[in-house]
């Protein structure tokens, strides 16, 4: 179902209240040749009726049933987490490996690699897991996976995140890779940063900044012509005493994930058009990464078979902290 058809169906069904109809303005902008500019002030992006398209999952079975058939294509991807410090023993061991390896980063990777190869590695300590919520969007459905309640890492969620065949479209994904590895021992693969895609698309407009991702708010304003509130970003994602999240938190989380899934195809089409105009390729490696022990690596391996760490300097358009031209 297209974005325009989805909003038309939801609005006509009466499932969207008057104060939420601002989202319906998005139906004026669709992927492909029908795309057109939206004039006038930006609308605030609100959540649709939670009972209609947003599914709040709190059991392993619910998650596995929801994600079972996602084996290709793309999904919108986001997480909400609260920072947790590593336990005392982990910090001591990482320091030892740092002294052996000669650098903090190499020491942490060496320790994590050893963990992954031992039978006792990555026995999840849920009291020390910072990831509270995982949001996955596909079509007109948003799944909010509450790991606070589940206290487990559902198999189909692990399969989806680690799959190289499913694009996970989000914003600011590098930090997510590290958190998933540190907390759950899972490397997330084929992750697209819509913030980096937008940076390439609007390179001239943001010429005096380095090749880092634009924020979700900025990308939504540029591509969807809507504003996305971040008022709930720093709320308590551990939830109440039962681990449940408030209705406001659920709406916030649903909007973020759905925005990513709507922005991604628009950005793909726009970058293809820009590449045609420039007469040069815009490699997906510039904005797509795989996780390797939580570190972002290039989407494709080098010709000699080694995995190479993703680096912003891979994109020659930006150098010295600003845009240098095509």
TrEMBL record:
Pfam family, one: DNA_pol_A_exo1
Annotated compartments: Nucleus
Every 3'-5' exonuclease domain range: 99-272
InterPro entries in alphabetical order: 3'-5'_exonuclease_dom (IPR002562), 3-5_Exonuclease_domain (IPR051132), RNaseH-like_sf (IPR012337), RNaseH_sf (IPR036397)
Annotated protein name in UniProt: 3'-5' exonuclease
Source species of the chain: Mycena metata
Alphabetic keyword roster: Exonuclease, Hydrolase, Magnesium, Metal-binding, Nuclease, Nucleus
Taxonomic lineage from the root: Eukaryota, Fungi, Dikarya, Basidiomycota, Agaricomycotina
Entry annotated with the keyword ATP-binding: no
GO molecular function, one term: metal ion binding
SMART domains xrefs: 35EXOc (SM00474)
Domain of life of the native organism: Eukaryota
One GO location term (cellular component): nucleus
